[in-house]
Design brief:
Order of helices and strands: EEEEEH
Structural class: alpha+beta
Number of helices: 1
Distance between the termini: 28 Å
Largest sheet: 5 strands, antiparallel
Number of strands: 5
Radius of gyration: 13 Å
Shape: elongated
Strand order of the largest sheet: 4-3-2-1-5
Length: 79
């Protein structure tokens, strides 16, 4: 995901290495990390507070679903 795509309320997901969608949530704000980079605050489903997550580690839900399918197909091809 690119930083310019981080808009309040955007539905995002996290993808595991095996290609499954791990978490779903929404962007609830922006913050800074230790390196003074602006990163989104993501409120994951089931969590009480939003968590700071680097924008490279989250995907828009639609893009994440497509990426998860590609990863699964690649893993099947390698086996």
């Amino acid at each position: 995901m690119k930083l310019y795509q981080c808009r309040l309320g955007e539905i995002v997901c996290n993808i595991q290495a095996d290609g499954t969608i791990d978490k779903i949530g929404h962007i609830s704000g922006l913050t800074k990390n230790n390196y003074e980079e602006v990163i989104p605050l993501v409120h994951w489903v089931g969590d009480k507070k939003p968590q700071p997550v680097h924008y490279r580690n989250v995907h828009l839900l639609e893009d994440g679903e497509k990426k998860a399918e590609k990863v699964k197909k690649l893993k099947k091809a390698i086996k």
